[in-house]
Design a protein that fits this description.
The protein is mainly alpha-helical. The chain has 9 helices and no strands. The chain starts with 8 loop residues before the first helix and ends in a 16-residue tail after the last helix.
Length: 205
Amino acid sequence: MGRPRTNDAAVRERLVACATEMFATRPQGSVTVRALATAAGTSTAAVYTLFDGKGGLIREVRDQAVAGLFQDLAAVPASKAALEDLYALAAAYRRWGREHRHLYTVLFGGAQSFVPSHRIGDRDPVRPLVAAIDRAVAGHILAGDTTLIAVSLWVALHGLVTLELAGSLDGAAAETAFRATIDAVLRGWATPSAFPGLRRTDPAL
């Protein structure tokens, strides 16, 4: 009989889950290989065998966060109305952040900062957002540099989600703040002809 596999997919999954929570809530320097292994119920050797050490595990956690956010934003169907798509993408971003609080914190900064393990390329989470902004600019709905518009929208979204995750915004106040903030950002970049249409009352966001 062969030796039982101890560093299998289940161990890998537990290590990633424990690392995600620990990296989101503690300074990176305090998260040791031993602490990670203990939390996951495995040995320090597993961290090196599966991830080539702590650095590889950090990259895996961040890459999973990138992939998860990209998947949810890319799943938002594109329509002929770029503006409606921007609202839908903003809502999807907010939903993913609230449903994956530790991954969100790892991705956008919590107790420490991370860098991508490689070039994100076509799986950059903001690509669907940038594509919708490009269409809005081409359709003379928004006016300005696409990158600057994307950054301003992301800053607003990140602030809102961060406040929600911290418990500073919830319930009706969070819903109202979300709709009003997205409206304000888009109105700020709107062309004069599009401005009257940039007022939302849809409670589904």
